[in-house]
Amino acid sequence: MNSASYLDLYRQFSSDIDVEMKAGIERLGPSSTAVKDAVTQLLQHQTFRYPLQVLPLLVHGAETGDPGPAVPLSAVHVLWWTSACYLDDLADGQAASVSRELGENEALLASIISGNALPLHIIQSQQVPDSARSALTAELVTCAVVGAEGQLSDLRRDAGDATRDSVVTTYRGKSGAPFGMITAMGAILAGAEHERIRMWREFGDVFGVLWQLFNDQQDILSGRNEDLRNGTITYLFACALENASPRSRTRLLDLHATAKSSEEARSELIASLLAPASLQQYEADLHRFRDEAQHLLTSLGGDGNYMPALHRLVEESAELLLHQTE
User: What value does the mean pLDDT take over residues 312-323?
Assistant: First the structure.
């Protein structure tokens, strides 16, 4: 994945985002030394391959022509996802000590601060009208609830009940909600009208689903297969399940259960997931979500220096990277 525009924007503002996060940590106060140290170590432990913290910069730039004022929101994005990724690992039984100094329990506490108190501190520190500050806070609170609902649905779902629609509902909570939050925040900070804020939130929600689908592919391509090891019900699995005959469906469910501990089962399951019928459905739905996101961006319009990067990001997120098995 390579989009010079959004990567260049990240390079331009990455140091400012780091400064904002450090300032947010320092605002916790001199009596919070242990908390500040723990959060700092958690941030150092969690790295992100794709700098999607530029999304609020792009939204603010599209609305006003100036991305800079949204740097604090980029910090919120990093802090929120740092927390979410650790909590997700914990739910999957993968969380461990972050470092020799920061054990699992300490990291858990740090993740709670990172995903809640720190973003709230940053929002409250912004020199904006009270109405805007309240709106930003409401986005954070709503995201926390919707995101937790998505995670709980993911943990509780029975594989046999999986459908494409049910998985999308989960993805909208796990990934759509935080992206919808941050794009709406960018529009709020830019002073956009209510309808534009709603559309930016909707765009972020759809983009979040696309990004989860992109991540699902990367998990298989990388060979990590964490979704299979964790028993995660992915969209690709739902595609395979819906296209399967009754006999094949039973076999898919057996493989899904066994894949948590069996390399052989994982290999066989991957082969089934990459069957032509499954991938064709997956690709068609990728294009459907892509078209929805692109339509929203076209309807929104905005500064020509920043909208192309958003359009390009959508296109690259919607690529089918997996290859069919024979």
Answer: 93
